Amino acid sequence: MSRYATTDLHGCLHTFRHLVEEELNLSRKDELYLLGDYVNKGPDSRGVLDYLMWLQAAGYQVHCLRGNHDQALLDAARHRWRWDWLGPRGRLPTLRSFGVSRLSDIPAPYLNWLATLPYEIELPDFMLVHAGYNFALTPAEMRQDHSTMLNTKSYVYDPVRLGGRRLLHGHVPTPTAQVRAKAALHPGALGLDTGCVYRHNPELAHLAALNLDTWKLTLVPNREPAYTIGKR
Questions:
Q1: For residues 179-191, b (16+ Cβ closer than 10 Å) or e, as one string?
Q2: What is the 3-state secondary structure (H, E, C) of the chain?
Q3: Could you report the per-residue pLDDT of 95-139, keeping only the tens digit for each?
Q4: Which residues contact residue 106 at a Cβ distance below 8 angstroms, ignoring those fewer than 6 apart?
Q5: Shortest CA distance to 209 belongs to which of 224, 227, 221?
Q6: pLDDT digits (tens, 9 = 90+) for 70-88
Q7: Sequence-distant (≥ 6) Cβ neighbours of residue 110 within 8 angstroms
Q8: Which of these, 45, 50, 137, 154, has the minimum number of CB atoms within 10 Å of its CB?
Q9: Pseudo-torsion of CA 203, 204, 209, 210, nearest 10°?
């Protein structure tokens, strides 16, 4: 059995499938942890959700937690708040992938699946979260601070507050060379978002997967058909 973690797919279905089927050769005995942000920005948000749900239904041990973009899609589709911050350029690829003109028309099974996603996953040796924690809070409080867990872009890692566990997260696109160098040091905290969706950024534009036991880092270049996205 192998354990892997990856993050921030953002609608990049072809790249993710290549990672799972060609690079990791994922078996039903392996465990794959995804750290959120399956939707928005990229070309095929629906395809990513379909593939994740198919893997789970087919008996693969695929464990998904929620990211801020998953939460934003869920909130907007259920009319909780307006989604203006992403803008039409960010919204339209998601709407097209579902074949709808309004977020509220996204089929219920997708919204229901997103609504079940946990904010964190606790392993014996790792804590997995989308963005990070507010380590100034008590351990109980910081693990209920969902806004920080989904959105923070900085933190001061304190292993004591995680029971000695290492921290893995996504959320902040980081150059592949920087992630590779840091992973080689086996750090206490590591961000795995290498900005796969930003296909015009040569320092990004990769999907990263970490083997949690060997610390081998797999980097897959963006393999999507051409789509419109700004350079980060």
A1: beeebeeeeebbb
A2: CCEEEECCCCCCHHHHHHHHHHHCCCCCCCEEEECCCCCCCCCCHHHHHHHHHHHHHCCCEEEECCCHHHHHHHHHHCCCCCCCCCHHHHHHHHHHHHCCCCHHHCCHHHHHHHHCCCCEEECCCEEEECCCCCCCCCHHHHCCCHHHHHHCCCCCCCHHHHCCCEEEECCCCCCHHHHHHHHCCCCCEEECCCCCCCCCCCCCCEEEEEECCCCCEEEEECCCCCCCCCCC
A3: 999 999 888 899 999 999 999 999 999 999 999 999 999 999 999
A4: 73, 77, 98, 100
A5: 221
A6: 999 998 888 766 555 566 6
A7: 46, 49, 98
A8: 154
A9: 50
Contacts 24+ apart (CB under 8 A), 75-80: 76/103, 77/103, 77/104, 77/106, 77/111, 78/104, 78/111, 79/104
Which tokens belong to 188? 């206490």
Give CA–CA dist 214/216, Å, rounded: 5
- The Cα 43–Cα 207 span in angstroms is 15
- Residue 224 corresponds to which tokens in the numbers above? 């999507």
Rounded CA Rg of the chain: 17
Q: Enter the pTM of the model.
A: 0.96
Question: What are the residues facing 211 on neighbouring strands?
Answer: 4
